[in-house]
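Work package 3, deliverable 3.1, input record:
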Amino acid sequence: MATIAKIDSPWGSQSDREAKRNSKRQAVLDTAVRLFNAKGFQATSLDYVAQALSVTKPTIYHYFSNKDDILFECLRLGMRQIQSAIGEVQQSAATGRDRLEVFAVAYALTMTQEFGMCTIRTSDDQLSAKSRKEFRALKREIHESLQAIIEDGMKDGSLIEGDARLTAFTMAGAINWIGRWYRPDQSMSPDQVAQGVVSNLMTGLVAR
Amino acid sequence: MATIAKIDSPWGSQSDREAKRNSKRQAVLDTAVRLFNAKGFQATSLDYVAQALSVTKPTIYHYFSNKDDILFECLRLGMRQIQSAIGEVQQSAATGRDRLEVFAVAYALTMTQEFGMCTIRTSDDQLSAKSRKEFRALKREIHESLQAIIEDGMKDGSLIEGDARLTAFTMAGAINWIGRWYRPDQSMSPDQVAQGVVSNLMTGLVAR
């Protein structure tokens, strides 16, 4: 096939246009998630999101079909950040304890960021039944991975033996809770919070 | 003043009538909280609550002015259960560690019960601005009491020294989370859950 010589089209290349579309779509998500976290999902209208982006509401409908759709994408992004932290430690040959610590700190860091926060601040009964089902499946997947790492550590002797499921809930609770109480303008950095909560969980509180 | 001889009034005594009114009011709360926890606050209409009690909606308005008012009472009952656990350990002369353990187990038990669950399952942006302010003040009070017990334990050497505020958030997260995941029909009893989560927090996870 003959190759067509590329010229500098005033419309940009197709990949340029796709990149622009993606960055606009992402800007909607970035703005929406900030408003959902700060004002609550219910109290945040799409008009308000549009206003914050200096566009009209129909512009937003170019990228998302409704507010639930935006929320679901925000939640999915938050869950993906947690999942990518799991991916990293699943490859590792370290002890269960070490893998748990690395994963837990990364998970906790996610909870100091807007998309992670959203997974805990917004109740999933705001989602459509279909999205809710998908969101809950993602949550279950993360919980099972966390539990599996804990089981590994209990087996290899690096963690105290016990009920891995209950331990996973203990950790998930303490870590998810960061998304409820942490405010980025507070005195502690995200790293300090993540390391601090995980160290409390790993070491416990009782002096020896 | 001459005393009037009491007769068996067919209306009952005034204290009988008050007791009956209170028990009916409590029945509305008991039914509503179960439905809020199971179906979500948004999805639970007052019609549905009335139906579950075999009364009409106007009967419910005899006791509460609206659904928000019922939710607020449910949340207040949950918070009061946690607060009464604090009252018990505040009198005690035991070490910070021992008081923390007793309080944390009682708090965790609350989270396996309907009113406690409600404080974590229902987002407080469902409340009116006035009720939300009051609810948040109650939450802050509980958090401050928890933090004060932890500070005592760090001072008397029974707990590892550290950031008492962060430790209080770590504990509150793991304990509150019980209200999200625990289902009363599961294999673990409320006692097992409460003892298990608190023991994880006190002892930590790392084998020595």
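DSSP finds nine helices and no strands in chain A.
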